[in-house]
Amino acid sequence: MTATTKRLPADQGILKNTLNTIVRMLGGTSMIKFLVRRLLAAIPVLLAILLVTFALIHALPGGPFNAVGQRRMPDYMVEQLKEKFGLNKPLFFNTPSDGYFPDGSDWKIIGYRNEQVTTGGGQTGGVRTEVRRVLRVDLFDSQFFNYLWGALRLDFGPSLNVALRDQNVQVGDEIARRLPVSMQVGIFAVILGFALGIPLGVLAAVYHNTLVDYFAMFFAVLGQATPAIVLAPVLIIIFAVELQWVPVIDQRNQWRAGPEFSLYYLQILALPVITLATGMSASIARLTRASLLQVLHEDYVRTARAKGLRERAVIYVHALKNALIPVATIIGPLLAGVLTGTFVVELIYTIPGLGKVFVDSVAARDYTMIMGVSLLYSVFLIIGNILVDVIYTWLDPRIRFD
Amino acid sequence: MAVAEGAEPLTLAGEEKPSNPWLDAWRLFRRNKAAVVALNVIIVIFLIAISAPLLTRLEILDARTGEAARHTINPVNLPQVDSYPDPLTCARDGQDQNPYWCSWLSEEALLEVQNKYCFRPAPDPNQRQWCYLLGGDSSGKDWLTQTVYGAQVSLAVGVLGATMSLVLGLIYGVIAGFYGGRVDNIMMRIVDFMYGIPYLVLVILLQVFFTEVARTYQGTERGGLVGFVLDLNSDMGGLLFLFIALGSLSWIGMARLARGQVLSYREKEFVEAARAVGASNRRIIFVHLLPNVIGPLIVAETLAIPGYIFTEAFLSFIGLGVQPGTPSWGAMISEVRTRGGFFSNRFILIVPSIALVITTLSFNFLGDGLRDALDPRLRGT
C-alpha cells in the first residue's frame, strides 16, 4: 500500500519531465499556445471553406446525374438517384416551408409530435377532436449539415461520379488512393528542387559577379519564367516523342503501384518531377544566393577569415548554415504550392493524382469529391502556413509570438 | 555692391534642392541593363497587342457569332487534316485580296512551296494564295495571328489583374494599418481566414461557375445589371470573369504587405511631425504614407504578374479560361496537345511557348529592376 503511494509521485515526475521535454522541444509554452491558437483558428476557416465550396458547386447548372457530356437519363432515374444519395433534401435548412414531406425510411425522423386535429362539425354530426401523430423532422436534416456531420466523423460520403457511384466508392478511399500518387511527384520534386537549387545558389554567390554567377542567375530567372504548361509539352516532345527515352503516359499502372527501384519507374517519374522542380529550384537558387551574399558580409564571417580559415571552410561551415535559414522557411509555402503545382503537371502528363481528380469531378459535378478534395487542399495549406511560422521561430529565436 | 560675375547664390549645405525620389529611382533603374531591355520588350509586346488588327490580316473567327470575319480562311473549305500544316503552308483565299505573305516569293518558288507544303497543290499558280507563315491549327486558323492576338489576353490579365490586386490590397491594407486597433484586428482576421483558401481550387470553381452561367445565358436577351455584365464579359472574350476569379484572392498578399508597410511608417518622425502641425488623416495617408508604402507594393505586383499570366494560360489550357474562340497562348498549347497529341506537327507548339516565356521573363527582369530601384534595401535578392 505504502509502496504504491510512494511510487506515484515518481511516475508523475517522469511524466512531467517527458512533458517538459516535449514542450521544450516544441519551443516552449508560448509555442504550444501559439500552435493551439492557430489550430483553433483553422476550424472556422475550414467551416467557411466548406460553406463556400458547397454554395459554389450547388450554384453550378446541372448536377451529378445530368452533367454535360454524360448519357442522358430518364427523369425518374435521376429522381431515384437523388433520393439514394440524399440530394433531394433541402440545401441548408430543412424548414417546413420547403414543402418536403418525408415518408421514406431514409429521412432522419427525429420523433413524432402529437397534434390536435378537429374534424367534423356542421350538420352531419358532432365535433370530434382527435390527436394525430405528426412526423417531426430535423431542421438540420439538409444536404449541407448531413455532409458536415459526416465530415466531422471523417466520412466524406460516396462519390457521385458516374464511374464510381455504382461501385459505391467512398470519397475518402478514393482520395487515399490518389493522394500518394500526387505525393510521389511532389516529394521527389521538392528533393530535386533543393538538390539543384542550393548548389546553384551557392555557386552564384561564391563566384559573385562572374560569368558563373550570371549564367546561374540567368537560368534561375528562365526557370522561374517558364510555366509548367510550356515546359511539360517541350519535354514530352523532346524526350518522349523524339528520343523515345520515356513513355508519354504510364501504361503499366505504375503510379498506383507506387515507388520501386526500376528503370520504368524512373522513366515515368522523370519528366513530371523535372517540370515541377525547375521552377522550385530556380526560386531556391535565387534565395540561397541572396541570403549567402548577405551573410558573407557579416562580421563573424570576417572573423573567420581573419583567423586564417580556408575560404572553403568559411563558406561551407560558417556562412552557409546561417544563409540557409531563409531558404528553409520556404518549405511551408513550397509544400502547399507543390500540391497545387501538381495540378498542372498531373493534367499534362495524365497522372491519376488528386489534381486530375479535382478537375474531372468539377466537370462531372461530383459534389462530394469536390468538397473532399478542396477540404484536403485547405488543410494542407493551413498546415503549411503554420509550419512556416514554426520554422521561423526554430531558426530565428529572435522572433516571438505574443 | 560688386557681385562677382557668375557667382552662385549662397546656399547652406543642407538646403540643396531636395532630390525627387522617383527621379532617383528612375536613375537607379536605368543602370540595370536587363531591366531596361525587359521594359522595352514589354512595350513592344504591348504595341503588338494593341495593334494586332493592323498587323495581321488573317482575322480569326468571331468568338460570339461563330461567323468568319472578313479575311478569315473559311475552315469549311479546308479538308479536315489530322496533322498541322508545316510552316509556310498555304491555303486558298476566296477573297480578291493581294497576296499577303506569299507576295515575297516568285511564282515558281510559290508553286514549289505549295506543292511541297500545302494541303492541296494549287491547280492554278495565278490564283491568289494565303500563306501560313508559322502554320495553322486544325481548323485552318493562322497560328501567327492567334499568337499576336494572344498577347492581348496575356497582357490584359497580367497588367489589369495586377492593378486590381494592387488597388484592392492597398486600400485594405492602408485602412487596417492606419486605423489599427479593433478595425485592424477584424480586417486582418478576415485576411488570415482567406489565407487558408487554396487559390487554384477557388479560381477553378469560380471559373466553372462563370463559364456555365455565361453558356446558359448565351444568346438570350437579358436586361439589367446581370445582362450588362454578361454582355461585357462576352465582348471581352471571357476576360471580365477571369479578372474577378483571379482577383478574388490575389489581393490578400498585397493587403498584408501594405499593412506592414503602413505600420512601420506610422510611428516614424515625419508622420509625427505632420500630425504635430495639424495635418488631417487624409493628408497624412495620401501625402506622407502612400508614397512610401507604394514602392514595395509595385515591386511585389510586378513580380506577381507572371503568376497571373501562368494562371490564365493554365486555365485556358484546361478549357476554363477565355471563351472558346478567343485566342490565348494557353489555349493554343492545349490545342496542339489535344488535337495533335504531340505527334503531328508538334514544332508549332514553340510559337506560343516562346511568346509566353519571353513575356514572363520580361516581367521578372522588370520586377527585379524595379526592386533595385524602389527598394534599395532588398538589392540583389
Instruction: Specify the oligomeric state.
Output: heterodimer
- Sum up the overall morphology of chain A in one term: flat
Shape of chain B: globular
Strand order of the largest sheet of chain A: 1-2
Number of E-type strands of chain A: 2
Name the descriptors.
heterodimer; A: 402 residues; mainly alpha; two-stranded antiparallel sheet; 2 strands; flat; disordered N terminus; B: 381 residues; MetI-like fold; 2 domains; two-stranded antiparallel ribbon; globular
Topology:
The complex is a heterodimer of chains A (402) and B (381).
Chain A: H1 2-26, H2 28-59, H3 75-84, E1 109-120, E2 127-137, H4 143-152, H5 162-165, H6 171-206, H7 211-225, H8 228-242, H9 254-257, H10 263-295, H11 299-306, H12 311-328, H13 331-349, H14 354-364, H15 367-395
Antiparallel strand pairs in A: 1-2
Chain B: H1 21-31, H2 33-50, H3 52-55, E1 89-92, H4 107-117, E2 129-132, H5 143-179, H6 181-195, H7 199-216, H8 224-235, H9 239-266, H10 269-276, H11 281-317, H12 329-340, H13 350-374
Antiparallel strand pairs in B: 1-2
Helix pairs in contact in B: 1-13, 2-5, 2-13, 5-6, 5-9, 5-11, 5-13, 6-9, 7-9, 9-11, 10-11, 11-12, 11-13, 12-13
Commentary on this structure:
The complex is a heterodimer of chains A (402) and B (381). Chain A is mainly α and 402 residues long. Chain A has a two-stranded antiparallel sheet. Chain A contains 15 helices and 2 strands. Chain A is 67% helix and 6% strand. Residues 57-105 and 116-130 of chain B have low confidence and may be disordered. In chain B, helix 2 (33-50) crosses helix 5, helix 9 (239-266) runs antiparallel to helix 11 (281-317) and helix 10 packs across helix 11. With 381 residues, chain B is mostly helical. Chain B has a two-stranded antiparallel ribbon with strand order 1-2. Chain B is globular. Chain B contains 13 helices and 2 strands. Chain B has helices spanning 21-31, 33-50, 52-55, 107-117, 143-179, 181-195, 199-216, 224-235, 239-266, 269-276, 281-317, 329-340, 350-374; strands at residues 89-92, 129-132.
